[in-house]
Design goal:
With 400 residues, the chain is α/β, with parallel strands linked by helices. 39% of the residues lie in helices and 19% in strands. Helix 3 crosses helix 10 and helix 5 runs parallel beside helix 6. The radius of gyration is 21 Å and the shape is globular. The two termini are 13 Å apart. The relative contact order is 0.16. The structure holds calcium ion. Calcium ion binds next to loops.
């Protein structure tokens, strides 16, 4: 089996009036970069690269740099290919674009391995610890004509939170960091009041705070019994996160902007996280994600996947979630204490909902992990064509 072709597809789905904000800016469209790898015997694997916008430069890297080392290779050699692609870009690319590119490529290769073996990726990776995951809703972004209007922001998060309760969710993560601290605290108070004391709540600042404001927000969230405080500080400030962990009892979650075993080793050695959030479509793919999981388990720290992007990244995260061992073992693992709590983005996302042949269907707050070969999804080509704005192909030359 040889790799014959590597294709990339830039997908964009405009959101129009449904645009929303995190602390870092507005989302006016959903964007994904899909990677498709085809072998000489007709196997096809899909991956997704660059879950952070923009994505065009990741496609350029795949074709201009990685393709030369990929075409003609046996896709079963995922470890050796990963090592070669990473090592050949070490001098300039130990994180960011080259690892984003490598992630999509590696996931596509694992998809091919699964298709060829007739096994889901979690079976290839050694077997699943679970066949379903409890999901939490990711929502409570900033919306509306004036996202800085406190009265409407409070009403909006209260109504939105009640909507998640009505849909059957039992856990919810909301955004903070865009409004002044007292106003964001009022928003989070309104959410707690709306959902009641027993509902699991988390919050995510997308690294909007300095050390002082993070401490103040952390104290306010503790008083409201929030379970975790995500990305309080910029990902470079590992010492700051470690200090917050010592000062606060709320769990500090971080890691979605980290790359490879080397990045997560620094994070863990700095004591910077109670919960590590790796994204399989950015951290280095399955080959590297499994090593990162071995590291987090050795540090007795749970890994809860960061999930964003299209149906491909979502399916990859589900396969990854299946193989994450409980930290630690108990007879009845409980999410999120020692079992996976899976991120379910509740913002509008046609690239997730329309691209998989069969959409991922929540049963209450639970998702089944696909058991069919590879990633366990079939890509709907009509949906792909509907949202594709640029595609590119690199093909093996005759004789190679
Ligand atoms: Ca996040």
């Amino acid at each position: 089996m040889r790799i014959d072709r590597i294709e990339t597809f830039v997908l964009k789905a405009p959101l129009g009036t449904e645009r929303f904000y995190s602390s870092q800016g507005s989302f006016h469209e959903r964007t994904s970069l899909l990677v498709r790898i085809t072998t000489d015997d007709g196997h096809v694997g899909w991956g997704e690269s660059g879950v952070s916008m923009p994505v065009e430069h990741v496609a350029a890297y795949i074709h201009d740099v990685a393709a030369l080392r990929l075409l003609g290779r046996d896709p079963a050699n995922t470890e050796a290919i990963w090592f070669e692609l990473y090592s050949s870009s070490r001098d300039f690319g130990r994180s960011g674009t080259p690892v984003d590119a490598l992630s999509g490529i590696d996931v596509a290769l694992w998809d091919i391995r699964g298709q060829a073996a007739g096994l889901p990726i979690h079976a290839l990776a050694g077997g699943a610890h679970r066949d379903r995951v409890r999901c939490y809703a990711t929502g409570l972004y900033y919306r509306g004509e004036d996202v800085r209007d406190l009265a409407s922001a409070v009403g909006q998060v209260r109504d939105e939170a009640l909507g998640y309760v009505a849909r059957g969710f039992t856990a919810l993560k909301g955004k903070v960091g865009l409004l002044p601290l007292p106003q964001d605290i009022k928003r989070m108070e309104a959410v707690r009041e709306a959902v009641g004391d027993r509902f699991l709540l988390m919050t995510d600042a997308n690294h909007a705070y300095n050390r002082h404001t993070a401490r103040r927000m952390g104290q306010a969230l503790e008083a409201l019994d929030y379970y975790w405080f995500e990305e309080p500080l910029v990902p470079e400030d590992l010492e700051g996160c470690a200090a917050l962990r010592r000062e606060l009892s709320i769990a500090i979650a971080t890691g979605e902007c980290e790359y490879t075993r080397y990045g997560y080793r620094r994070l863990l050695q700095a004591d910077a996280a109670d919960i590590v959030q790796a994204d399989i479509s950015a951290c280095g793919g399955f080959s590297e994600g499994l090593k990162i999981h071995a590291l987090t388990a050795a540090f007795c720290t749970p890994l809860l996947p960061h999930v964003w992007g299209s149906a491909v990244a979502f399916a990859a995260a589900l396969q990854f979630a299946a193989v994450l061992e409980p930290v630690p073992h108990t007879a009845f693992p409980q999410a999120p204490e020692n079992d996976v709590l899976f991120e379910y983005d509740c913002n509008p996302n046609p690239l997730r909902d329309e691209l998989a042949g069969v959409p991922f269907a929540l049963e209450g707050d639970t998702l089944r992990i696909p058991q069919t070969p590879g990633l366990g999804i079939a890509i709907d080509r009509e949906a792909l064509n509907r949202y594709c704005v640029a595609e590119q192909s690199s093909t093996r030359k005759a004789g190679l």
